[in-house]
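Lab channel / #folding
Pinned by the channel admin:
"Please post every new chain as: sequence first, then the structure tokens as a reply. Keep commentary short and put observations after the output so the thread stays searchable."

First post following the new format, from NK:
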Amino acid sequence: MPTFRYRAYGHAGDLAEGAIDAATADAATDLLWGQGLTPFWLRQNDEAATAWWRRDLLAPRPPSATDLALFTRDFATLHTAEIPLDDALRTLGEQASSAKMRALAKKLLADVLNGATLSDAMQRQTVFPVDYVSAVRAGEIGGTLARVFEELADLLERRSEIRARVKSALVYPAMLMALAIVSLAIVVGVLVPSIAPIFAETGRPMPAGLQVVIAAQAHLTEILVAIATLAGATLAAAAVVLNRPDLRLALDRRLLKTFGLGPFLLQQETARFTRTLGTLVRAGVPLLLAATSARAVVVNRHVAAAIDGAIDMVREGASLHHALQAADVLPAMALRMISVGEEAGKLAAMLLRIAKMFETQTQRSVDRFMTILTPLLTIVIAVLVGGLIMAVMNAILSINGLAGR
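Reply from TO:
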């Protein structure tokens, strides 16, 4: 009988994970529900029986974050227009933005027609994040599904916008690096080999710069092997760190204390956590469940562990700002604004305001970094390419001097 790995919520909103034996994924889900658990992630534990090339290279890729955002926006539009759920899914199954989302809509429709709720149908798919499913379930219970999808669409579009800004900021440096590699390849692979034989024929010594380039060419295999070995050792060390929770936690804690990088990471994690939490709370998700779902989007293990402690305090009756203040991980400005939001009864609006503020700070940090990186790369590339060209020009001038004699 297949074994399924699962992650689920308990009655009190606590997280549980483990393995369960069942004939099918649906049967495993039913067994978990019977145990009082609400599964949000379920996967058959058969990776070892599958060839690595089939699992890693031929496995179908999930829909992109942009596809999911467009799907959510279209669903919100249809639901706001009071189109029945099954008709909305049929429409998306025919007219969604991508083939993967059309296939996904058809799977959701099949589950819904078989009696499952929309949140349960989404829970069976690995495409939808934890916070997404939690918000949909809260919308079904509270009868605010249209509003929930509007909030989720705004959240996903905001995340896509931030990713797009970072990618666009990296385009110019990537082009500089590509042009530099092409220029170096032309100089080293075409110009140098055409000039070097002339010095060998005349018996004259080569310029020092040209000697360095030719020596590098002669030992190119050894250099590539050394680079590959270093890269392999680095990847192996990274794999060990990522697979050891204690080492990963220590690394994430150290990264937060790194000059320059630490404040940027904390800004990013604060924006991500408060944006998700504010969206879920505004959509009607209970605070404890919303905080647990929002914690799942936090990448840094140290920040996530601190938020876990805060969630435990909230579960015991503490207010959110007191719990986060005791965790001592989020910026003081964010904690002060959360306190004001709770006291004024406008927590969701204040959380979204915090998210917008820290997202703006994150974007400014990226802009400042790119402002420094671009001229720095330009200077480094100019030195490398210019140095090689000067070596070639010196060689050419030496050849002209020999011809003149």
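NK: The first strand starts at residue 3 and ends at 9.
TO: also worth noting, The two ends are 88 Å apart (CA to CA).
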